[in-house]
Amino acid sequence: MDVRAAVALEAGKPLEITTVQLDGPQAGEVMVEIKATGICHTDEFTLSGADPEGLFPAVLGHEGAGVVVDVGPGVTSVKTGDHVIPLYTPECRTCPSCLSRKTNLCTAIRATQGQGLMPDGSSRFSLEGKPLFHYMGTSTFANYTVLPEIAVAKIREDAPFDKVCYIGCGVTTGIGAVINTAQVEPGAKAIVFGLGGIGLNVIQGLRLVGAEMIIGVDINPAKKEWGERFGMTHFVNPNDVEGDLVPYLVDMTKKGADQIGGADYTFDCTGNVTVMRQALEACHRGWGQSIIIGVAPAGAEIATRPFQLVTGRVWKGTAFGGARGRTDVPRIVDWYMDGRIEIDPMITHTMPLTDINNGFDLMHAGESIRSVVVY
Ligand code: NAD
Ligand code: AHE
Ligand code: ZN
Q1: Structural domain includes residue 326
Q2: Residue 343: pLDDT over 90
Q3: What's the pLDDT tens digit per position in 61-107?
Q4: CA distance 40 to 86
Q5: Is residue 106 flagged as an active site residue?
Q6: Among 204, 307, 318, 340, whose Cα sits 20 to 30 Å from the Cα of 123?
Q7: Which CATH number belongs to the domain containing residue 260 in this structure?
Q8: Which range of residues forms the domain containing residue 228?
Q9: Is 110 a catalytic residue?
Q10: Could you tell me if 116 and 188 lie in one domain?
Q11: Which of 29, 40, 173, 270 is catalytic?
Q12: Percentage of the chain exceeding pLDDT 90
């Protein structure tokens, strides 16, 4: 069937809005009519050519919400008419990783997903008879897409697609990093580096769990007001700091008898490896944990003195906030619908698919928190 898509024909070029062909779902797959999709920095990362796994031509997009319109043979967990959020981290519940209970990184289909293909090794998308690559197993920059059954979370039907699509990545990643990965306790001191679509969700996650001190760090001064809106208690613009940023941040956290200083938890939401080092070194000696959320370009490496780890600081990473999608995403949708978490103010721009490149321009200019394409 013909569907409308924004196609990444090659790295570094704007997306091409065009009609592509989509084949129906095979065994264990579902077709979803995508109603809305967010534009995450990771889409920009891959489109820029910085992603070592980036493949072209492809249909990008991984932050969607929509309705199941067809199911292939053997599908049992969802049916036509169900409202769903696509999952770039699936949850098969039977692979060694799912069964380990130690990770959310289901490995059932990761190999073919990374090759831009469905689990049977083929693509459902094509353009003028030539296959297009899928992206992150989701390809939400098309008004219809095909997904493995294990890569959709069924959600309640009263949740608005143009808001809960953000739970498909940004909201879950930020809040999940706090709750699942760092397991932040009430009263903690935390520093969040990068107050974009992910960092602001880390901040609202920290507020949710009762963190006492939430320091936001961003080189864009406009982010001060944004951080405060979601619970940030202090703002630091590194460009306004004389001397080294790390001792400045450590000093801010010194309190009472504890004159060592350092945060209990820090979060990198920039993807910049220099910032990742600052985030680790701003942690408290003996127990501070630094969580890497940002994704860095091909070839980038992190560095620190091993002494930082010898003295008890911990470096961790998180993908999709450690969330098990089919289990956790419906609950996060409930939190939104019950008013426990905010989404609406972070969606600063909405646009039709024809204007999707404008969404990327707004991100580059630092003018948007989240742009959402509404089909
Ligand atoms: P964004 O563009 O909305 O926000 C990035 C923010 O970082 C901006 O406010 C920018 O001003 C700030 N920044 C840039 N350089 C900085 C510096 N040197 N010091 C302080 N602040 C700086 O991006 P986003 O959508 O919030 O994504 C953030 C990162 O998280 C990206 O690398 C993205 O690819 C990654 N990501 C990872 C996961 C995951 O599962 N691990 C999920 C989603 C996004
Ligand atoms: N392909 C990149 C890495 C990209 C990456 O780390 N993606 C995150 C999700 S970012 C969502 O906005 C992720 O889920 N990682 C785990 C995984 O299995 O991909 C690279 O560097 O090769
Ligand atoms: Zn994302």
Answers
A1: no
A2: yes
A3: 999 999 999 999 999 999 999 999 999 999 999 999 999 999 999 99
A4: 14
A5: yes
A6: 318
A7: 3.40.50.720
A8: 174-318
A9: yes
A10: no
A11: 40
A12: 99
Same domain? For 359 and 279 the reply is: no
The whole-angstrom separation of Cα 136 and Cα 87 is 9
Q: Are residues 182 and 299 in the same domain?
A: yes
Is 212's C-beta closer than 6 angstroms to any atom of ligand 2?
A: no
- Is there a contact between 144 and 34 (Cβ–Cβ < 8 Å)? yes
CA dist., res. 301 & res. 284, Å (int): 23
What confidence tens digit (pLDDT) does each residue in 186-217 have? 999 999 999 999 999 999 999 999 999 999 99
Tell me the per-residue pLDDT of 301-334, one tens digit each, with 9 for 90 and over: 999 999 999 999 999 999 999 999 999 999 999 9
Whether residues 303 and 349 fall in one domain: no
Give the CATH number of the domain where residue 117 resides. 3.90.180.10
**Claim to verify: residue 160 and residue 84 sit in the same structural domain:** yes
Q: Which atom of ligand 2 lies closest to the CA of 198? A: 12
Residues contacting ligand 1 via CB (< 6 Å):
40-42, 45, 169, 173, 193-199, 217-220, 223, 238, 269-272, 275, 293-295, 318-320, 363, 366
162 and 178 housed in the same domain: no
Catalytically annotated residue among 33, 44, 92, 107: 92
295 CB near ligand 2 (under 6 Å): yes
Query: Number of structural domains, the chain?
Result: 2
The answer, yes or no, to whether any atom of ligand 2 lies below 6 A from the CB of 51, is yes
Mean pLDDT for the stretch of residues 150-179? 98
349 is catalytic: no
Helix, strand or coil for residue 364? helix
Is the Cα torsion angle 155, 321, 37, 207 positive or negative in sign? positive
Q: Are residues 96 and 182 in the same domain?
A: no
Active site residue 342: no
257 falls in which pLDDT band (50, 70, 90)?
Answer: confident
Smallest CA separation from ligand 1 atom 4, residue: 196
Proportion of the chain above pLDDT 70, given as a percent: 100
> Is the CB of 230 inside a 6 Å radius of any atom of ligand 2?
no
Give the number of other CB atoms < 10 A from CB of residue 170.
29
The DSSP secondary-structure symbol of 178 reads I
Secondary element (H or E) of residue 359: helix 356-364
User: Does the active-site annotation cover 172?
Assistant: no
Cβ atoms of residues 199 and 217 within 8 Å: no
Q: Of 29, 37, 41, 46, which residue is the catalytic one?
A: 41
